[in-house]
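$ fold --in a.seq
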Amino acid sequence: MRYASVMYLYKGREDEYKKRHDELWPELAEHLKQHGIRNYYIHLDANESDPNANRLYATFDADDLDAKALAAHPVMQRWWEYMADIMETKTPSFEPVADALEEVFRFNVLQPDKTRVVAVLDIGKTNIKICLMDGQTGALLHIAKRVNGVVDAPPYPHVAMDSIWHWIKDTLADLAQRYFIASIAITTHGATIACMKGDELALPILDYEYDGVSECKDEYDAVRPDFSESFSPRLPQGLNLGAQLFWQQKHFSGEFSGVDSLLLYPQYWGYKLSGNKAAEVTSLGCHTDLWNPTNCQFSSLCEQQKWSELFPEVMETGAKLGTILPELANELGLPASCVIFNGIHDSNASLVPYIGQPMEKLTVVSSGTWTVIATINGKLDSLQEDKDMLANVDALGRATPTIRFMGGREWEQLRSDSKATLSDVSFILEHGILAMPAFAKGGGPFARCEGRIINRGLELMPAQQSALADVYVALMTDYCLDLMDSSDTVIVEGAFSNNINFLTLLACMRSQNEIYASRDVTGTSGGAALLSNKSLKLKGRLSLAWCDAQIKPLLNLYRQQWRDLVGEL
């Protein structure tokens, strides 16, 4: 944003004014930079008709300027007092008298030296990324990425907080040398919570795939809310956040008694960056047992256990938490004006570019470690708890029917390092080689089934193994879509949006739908960035997936055989 004002210089003090600015204090220059001020110009209008004053016209650019913090700093106060003898100032603050000017025209505006960006901290179960999006166009400019992991050590497997935090800081510090990071948006996987005691963790952040949480299964099942209230299915391991908290409260009662706040995973990182605590609905409503999505309030379980008292204020998704902590700004070279946003659950971030579309219903397939299928404006009455169906909560706070399975993880387990062609896919279909669910324990309609491959006595070549993986995830997606209240239009986001075999197979199986692949490679990061900057031009570039007529007859027979077998599971 450009700011412009007019100030008033005493007659005869023109040379002194210029001299003082030629010798601008370095600490003041640094203060202005830290608040994101750039392209600062002051022009003098020596008004001969006015014997009392000359006019100074000042313009500068800044995003999300905190004018109060800028003015309150001691260096700013000293500068104003220093200039008070040569220009009109206010009493008693010495702040220059300045009248704001309204912009009425601009032409051929040049970019500043550093491109202004939104940095998106995107923490998935498998990978951690920081994506830089152009602050005006939303174009992806840079991705920094590393593999995520778990610390398998006492007191239980937990998130590797220290290594993640060090990587985040090192990466931001490196990027800040080349880009002006005006804001940071956050998106993370769900089923993860931080138990805080003041500014520190009271307990390590538990890994949701820890089987030990199931030790309390019977006790927890006796107190958890009905599906009709929470729309959270009963999930294995720690995938229900309520089960995690229940287990920690029982097994670590001393530490848990000292917990004074609960921070969901996106908001934990927002707190680390800004020092401000908040709660937010997309993570609260992500199969947690803690939220009533139809009434938009904490669940009866959360109230009974008095956990609701430990959550900070529930803020609107995409709200500003504040600016970056001053000590972090100095350490990392970020502007003091860098705004931190409160974060969003990653699958719901994929919906953000579409929730403002005018169509009545829209189904989005978000693919990563999890394949999450959600229908915007869909009906909840089709949800079946035993099929791992649930109501997620979108960025507008609306209950959104959802089904998911661990598609990315299963695909990784089935595939080889060789890429499959449609010829390899045809080989799988012709020989009736079947992958029967499930190959991951985390969830999905067949989470309690043991995955197996019916190979008809054939040994698959590497590319054929990858073809089987493509066929399997397409069949599972098709099966899940049939269980859903899905729309005529289905948009595939994330990893599978670049898998041509997957898209072709899905288009062949679902002639009742138009299947589109998002060409926006940012996926969840793009949605998080859009929440933080409503002016971004993220409309989503889509390409229509086409059915291959040659494989469709084979695929129809193969699909029916697979469906018959899964019907027996």
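$ fold --in b.seq
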Amino acid sequence: MAHTFLLEIGLEEMPAHVVTPAIKQLVKRTADYLKEQRVAYDDIKPFSTPRRLAVQITGLADKQDDISESVKGPAKKIAQDADGNWTKAAIGFTRGQGLTPDDITFKEIKGTEYVYVDKFIAGEPVATVLAGLRDIVMAMTFPTMMKWSTHHFQYIRPIRWTVALLDDQVIPFTILDVTTGRSTRGHRFLGKEIDLATAEDYEESLTSQFVIADADKRKALIKKQINKLATDNDWTVDIDAGLLEEVNNLVEWPTAFAGSFDEKYLTIPDEVLITSMRDHQRFFYARDATGKLLPVFISVRNGTDHDLQNVVAGNEKVLTARLEDAMFFYTEDQKKTIADYVDRLKTVSFHDKISTMAEKMDRVKAIVSVLAKHLNLNDAQTKATLRASEIYKFDLVTGMVGEFAELQGVMGEKYALLAGEDPAVAQAIREHYEPISADGALPESVPGAVLALADKFDSILTFFAAGMIPSGSNDPYALRRQATGIVRIAKDQNWALPVAELAQDFIAAETAAKVAPDLDQASQIQAVVDFVKDRIRKILRSAKQRHDIIDAVTNGSSSDVLRIFTAADILASHADDANFKAVIESLTRVIRLAQKAPAELADATVDAKLFENDSEGALEQGVTEVAAAADKGLNDLYAALADIQPTIAAYFEATMVMAKDDAVRNNRLTELSKLANLALGLGDLDQLIVK
């Protein structure tokens, strides 16, 4: 007989951002537990609201699956002594299986007899197994945890009630001072506590108490209500998925409504209005058919439409207060010049162990000058980027950003345009923060991308030099995100970005301009290179690249971000070639032998007079061709290395590299070193797994 089980955890209101991850965690933990306990079922349906996390399991089996298996133990010669008595090994083995030595049989495998026991474990009733879900509930983890009452136990919010129903029977267990039952609670203000007759009654019973427990149904209803308001008023509403998710996790019985604000506030930039509505009040905004922002908003109430006009008026009052503040700051900020704000940055700390924000901008300008030359920017791009680097943090000390911190960069662009700056400069000011998340939007303009790189490089170099290197999950200054940004921008713009060489140039430029911080940045260059390569590894893993190819390209000698990605693509594209195994094996043999070359041979040249067979001359000619191909790019390099494989094979067939004669041996190691250095341009090929 198939059963239905309901587990509900009733809580004080959870933060909206926790609800969805929490219910996913509960579903996974429950599924893993049932699998571990050998309990078959058809489906696990999740339910979640701000006050509850619940799962309804359908098609549950009556009991655990029985276990019937033959278990192998130690060899007979270990299980019995010379007199045929059972040894401690045999006794311990059978005890571990819940049996005795009397249950032992012997089976021969490849000429050796081994101990075997036939093991049978009858499955426990499902009711007994489900009681173990107590531990699953208590093991859940959350971003923030709290204690309550006199308990030492921590959870996202205090647990107020629990339901555990198998069909119509309560599965008893206790969490702290809360014992499972059949009573659940409806909407905090509109509903009441009710008893569930069976586990199948859950969703319908809660609906009668003004709770839509199915998050997907609740979300669909909110979306339908918003679209109806938009259609009725001829508005265009872009329903932001993140905001919809958040609002959905704030309500149990949603009712959407519209409000308005004075048109005078439309003189404020749209970004400010949208931030006030969406981020601060969790309102949806509307536009007309031409895309112009309208003086209206849509919100969602946790309740019915009773006395809705009072709710509308209250929300309008709160939003108006926010917009009045924004209007004031927007007006006051324009009374000062950009130069005034830049001067104020001399008293604003970037970090007390590093410098002021003004000094950071000086360093970034020096870095920009290096990047502009390295990337061959044209005069207009260079001029715009350098000007942006001189002022790009000025909006941090404006009143608007002081009140609306999430608008930094955005207001910089707005105010720069109002002050008559080049639009390219203004755009770079906004874009230098991008990407603002691991997969966020990237700068679209060249000046914006260069300024973003310079700002991020400065932050990573100076924080590393100041000893504030991320470890474990600790990354208070978001340096991993900034390193990811560097990698993504270089890849997006198709820019060669040799991190080690550029970092040296950055430090030299800062020193020449007398803006270098009082920190030893040079000692941290290799650590920064490794840090950036870690971000490359993560991106390649997320792209489902082969792990051995990732290891090969990131463990190579190159610190060029674009080159590493290109090398990974090339190796992956040739991995299924018929000759890939032969090519890689030949090259790795070359690399390993080249490692035996004495350090003094680093700058040596190959002397053809010391060749003792034709294969040495053929290899030298091949190396010359590979070197010429390497100048054209990595695709040509790989093709040339693949072409030279038969020559390498013939060389090793005819040549003893480690000859007794020192001059001959060193000449051969020099020749192999030249080839190895070229091959290492693709990465540490020894990491590749070839079959």
